Amino acid sequence: MLQIVGRREGGRLRHVVIIATVSKQLAGHTNTSTFTRHSRYAGGYWFRTVMGLGFRMLFTDCDALIFDSDGVLVNSEVINIAVEQEYLAELGLTYDYATYVSRFVGLANADFHAQLAADFNERVGGEFPQDFGSQLDDRIWPRIEAELKPLEGVEKLVAAFGGRVAVGSSASIDKLVRKLELTKLDRLFAPHIYSADHVQRGKPAPDLFLYAARQIDVQPERCVVIEDSVNGVLAARAANMTAIGFVGGDHADSGLAERLKASGAATVVSSHAEILGML
Question: Looking at the annotation, which residues are catalytic?
Answer without folding.
Answer: 68, 70
